Please model this.
Amino acid sequence: MFDADAQALRERQSDGDYLLPAYDDWCFSRIPGTVADLLGADVGPRLPASATEGYDDVSQVVVFLVDGFGLAQWDGERDRIPFLREFERAGRVTPLTSVSPSETAAAMNTFHSGALPSEHGVVGWNVYDPDADEMFEALPFLRKDGTEPERLDRGDVADCESVYPDLADAGVEAHHVTPFPSEGTVPHTYDPEDLSTFSDAFAEAADSAADPSYVFAYLPQTDAVAHGEGVDSAAYRETAAETFARVEDAIATLAETTDDEDAGETLVCVTADHGLVDTDPERNPDLSEPPFDLVSDLRTLTDGTPVRFSGSPRNVHLHLRDERIDPVYDLLTTELDARVFRKREVLERGLFGPEPSPTFERRLGDLVVVHRDLGVWYGDEEPGNLGFVAMHGGLHPDEMLIPFATATLDSLR
Model:
């Protein structure tokens, strides 16, 4: 079923055509604290108690995070994917908001730490750190030329600590079924290009996890195909169907390895880091072309390279020469159907969260551009980004609303 009370979230958080994060209660950022609380640990704020009402004596939590599969995608695929309907009947689907930016790099650092983007400082897929004089992609921790930043360590990407040591101290064993291992957990890796390898990796995790345990499974395939094809495409639907077939198989495997009593104490969750919105590659604005021509307005690295890469096409951070901030603001607000936030406004409104860290403040752009429904980027350097169909990172309701679906394992049998 859908949680009727939480459906009011959309109306409460709406700001015109945009939807703001609900950091104080119904937010993705509170999932790690909720999981920990159910398992008897404290790693930070949790969702309101009603989100997990009725789930008593939980000894194992299993979270399937399907990248980019927001609430709009859940609704859009429900009729085509029986698993989604069956999960609704077995448990509940509670809408949450993502964080801002609604991007994997920012959201997943939040998911593994409980820290908001305003704390950990990952402002998007691309990050510019003026103290280090570096631009880099946050998740692969690489410059655009494929080399690692020389003046930053991988641990400097996010200014936060993982929740997993605290879980371990509380006796909770954490297993990760992901395409890449993560520190502080028991890893079970698989090939993201071959979803059939997910099943064996999950089976290994299910078989080896000892209660109390937390099993986290990450599936990025729907997000990847949506960028190129859009959410209203045959390729996307095929990938979504295959992804949830694997999730369904994983739950069946879990049921086989769990006795009847423990099945009632195993909570299964399905969620997403953000949703997706289809843009129009024919109309996605190019900041390196007229009427913008912004490259000459940008600050530069010490070697003279313009700071193009900060944020993403749905969450553009502009680091501008001081005298160009006001003229560029005027230009963008005239030419774009977008919210253009000044740095001061971002901080005052707590758009990325309250209590900004020094790391976040120095990485935050002078202006942050969030288009209503298009992608905005630099075609001179990354024309492929303007060719993406589905994107995320902004404040469109389809990006910001995500499902938090929960059911006990015995109800899913």
The CA atoms of residues 206 and 254 lie 6 Å apart. Residues 1-117+158-276+397-411 form a domain with the Alkaline Phosphatase, subunit A fold (CATH 3.40.720.10). The radius of gyration is 21 Å. The mean pLDDT is 96.
